Give the backbone structure.
Amino acid sequence: MGEGNWYDADIERVVVTEEQIHNKIQDLAKQIAADYVRMESVLLVGVLKGAFMFMADFARALGRLAGAVEVEFMAVSSYGQRATSSGVVRILKDLDRDIANKHVIVVEDIVDSGLTLSWLLKYLESRSAASVEVVALLRKPDAIKVNVPVKYIGFDISNEFVVGYGLDFAERYREMPYIGVLRPSVYSRV
Ligand code: XMP
Ligand code: MG
């Protein structure tokens, strides 16, 4: 911290450092490479926009350890208010191709209520994937209440709004290389 990036001054507290993210991704990639050692190829499905940075780092880490890795992206949005999310999801960007018989790993930034993810898992299974698992960099406490099977987790964090490493507030802070909590004054600015 304190290298003078524009965003450092807006961050009240660092939740996960750049180094912690890097090390965790290596660990996750090792674990997943071992679990998928017999699979011919793995298809990573990133959920935009939040997962873009995690996807880039995770795909590189896995690619060095595992066999061929394919990459796809989806963009989804929940209908209505996030806080009262019904779990009904609208597809903004669908998969570009068939995933039948592929071993899919969904790459998610953060699991909160788990509603988005549980919808997505059903959707991918309905497209006849050979298997579907999830790797999520972050998990919030509410996610543990719902029964959404996230096999690979980076960090369990407290129930606060976080930004950075793909995650935004009003489309800002996505480029931050670490994850942090914003100062309250940032919210009163908008
Ligand atoms: P659910 O509740 O369906 O939603 O698991 C997960 C999605 O909610 C967003 N989300 C956040 N975005 N900081 C963010 O920038 C957060 O602290 C946060 N918590 C949830 C995110 O889009 C995630 O995919
Ligand atoms: Mg957002």
In short: The chain is about 30% helix and 30% strand. The mean pLDDT is 91. Residues 50, 85, 109-117, 161-163, 167-168 surround xanthosine-5'-monophosphate (ligand 1) (CB under 6 Å). The beta strands are 11-16, 42-48, 69-78, 89-93, 103-111, 131-139, 152-156, 179-182.
